[in-house]
Write a structure and sequence with these properties.
By secondary structure, this protein is of the alpha/beta class. Helices cover about 35% and strands about 20% of the residues. The strands form five sheets. Strands 4, 5, 8, 9, 10, 11, 12, 13, 15 and 16 form a ten-stranded mixed β-sheet that branches. The chain has a three-stranded antiparallel β-sheet with strand order 1-2-3. The structure holds 2-keto-3-deoxygluconate and magnesium ion.
């Protein structure tokens, strides 16, 4: 057996997705997600120009060997483009292996460790009333854990809240809180850390008063704080018992988390922009985080993220895999299979895709009472309607960026 065909399919039903489709000599197909929000075509080129030619004729059963060949063989290691491309190959090979074995991928990873995956959704609102409505609507949709993002007085637009600009730029087509906007240039947002730090604890106090102590609440600071500011935020949120505070600092400075940890017991989640186990080396070994946020799509696939999570498990650190709308249904399926199988599963982020996306990617997962399950179809359980995908060509889109009031570019 060998890989006969490798196609890179770009489609933009509600937003851009990059999918690798492998076909073996006897006609078994496998899908992998290679979507890198705002930089999609870089991964397309990496795959088409440099990876696809290497895959033709390879034995599709050799997943680990192919991973090492693509990682070590490139000489240039790590980085989001490389690791998204490798992830797509890896997922597609697991998909093929599952179909060949007639088993869902989670069975190949050791079988189910739980009945389903607790998932959290994104509630947001510019005002408290809007936020409360959004939380209630998420509860009605079955969510048992909810991320809370709000507007901050004095700031026009802010991460995590659907802005009118986003909606208009996308010509009325957007997911609830999809931050990438279609158009030739990125949208500018504004930021002020002092206003944010004053406001957020009051929001969580109001949410706890309204919704009680039980509901798991999460919050994403989206890389914007210095270590001492993050420490202060974590401390000020302690009375509201967060499930986690995410990306409190731009975490490439791993040592920064030591300072944050010294001041707060609010659990910390980090890693959606990380792409290898080496990005986590210090923060896992020193137990500076509680949840690993990486997506299968951006961390070299199932093979590599499982290694990260196995390493994390030695320190009682759990998974909290990234699952915004820019992870395609294929990437989400891979996360669900991995999350179902590992022991140290924590929670899964789950933002629903749009109707057009769900029509192009036919999926087997279930969503019931706040829990996800990948389903029992052999492989990953996702099929791509290639003709349908062809009806939605790539549309240029960018993530926004931030400026402070004096015009300085700030972390977004
Ligand atoms: O592409 C960027 C998004 O994936 C990111 O902004 C979403 O931070 C995010 C989250 O926690 O879902
Ligand atoms: Mg995040």
């Amino acid at each position: 057996m060998s890989i006969d065909r490798a196609e890179v399919i770009v489609t933009s039903p509600d937003r851009n997705f990059v999918t690798l489709k492998l076909t073996t000599a006897d006609g078994v197909t496998g899908l992998g997600d290679a979507t890198l929000n705002g930089r999609e075509l870089a991964v397309v080129s990496y795959l088409k120009d440099h990876v696809v030619p290497l895959l033709i004729g390879r034995d599709e059963s050799r997943i680990e060997d192919t991973w090492q060949f693509l990682y070590r063989g490139a000489y240039w290691r790590r980085g989001p483009v490389t690791m998204a491309a490798i992830a797509a190959v890896d997922m597609a090979l697991w998909d093929i292996k599952g179909k060949t074995a007639n088993m869902p991928v989670y069975q190949l990873l050791g079988g189910a460790s739980r009945r389903g995956l607790l998932a959290y959704g994104h509630a947001s609102g510019k005002t408290l009333d809007e936020l409360f409505d959004s939380i209630r609507s998420h509860q009605e949709q079955g969510y048992r854990a909810i991320r809370v993002q709000t507007g901050v007085p004095g700031l026009k637009s802010i991460y995590g809240i659907a802005s009118n600009a986003t909606y208009e730029a996308n010509k009325g087509v957007r997911y609830d809180h999809e931050p990438a906007q279609r158009g030739a240039l990125p949208h500018e947002e504004d930021w002020d850390t002092r206003s944010y730090l004053r406001h957020i604890p009051t929001v969580f106090e109001a949410v706890r008063n309204e919704f009680g102590p039980e509901l798991p609440l999460l919050h994403d600071a989206h890389h914007r704080l210095t270590p001492i500011q993050a420490a202060r935020l974590g401390k000020s949120l302690e009375p509201y018992d967060l499930f986690w505070l995410e990306d409190c600092t731009p975490a490439e400075n791993q040592e920064a988390l030591r300072l944050v940890r010294r001041h707060t017991t609010t659990p910390l989640a980090i890693g959606e922009i990380f792409n290898t186990v080496w990005d986590y080396q210090q923060i896992i070994r020193e137990q500076l985080i509680d949840y690993v946020r990486s997506a299968v799509t951006h961390t070299g696939g199932i093979t590599h993220l499982k290694k990260v999570l196995d390493y994390a498990s030695q320190y009682q650190i759990k998974s909290g895999m990234h699952g915004p709308t820019d992870i395609s249904p294929v990437g989400m399926a891979a996360a669900m299979h991995l999350g179902l199988a590992i022991h140290n599963f924590g929670i899964q982020e789950y933002m629903k895709h749009g109707e057009k996306t769900d029509a192009v990617f036919e999926q087997s997962f279930t969503w019931q009472d706040g829990y996800l399950h990948p389903g029992d179809r052999p492989g990953l359980g996702v099929e791509l309607d290639v003709d349908g995908a062809g009806r939605y060509p790539y549309v240029q889109a960018y993530l926004p960026y931030n400026r402070l009031h004096d015009g300085t570019v700030h972390d977004w």
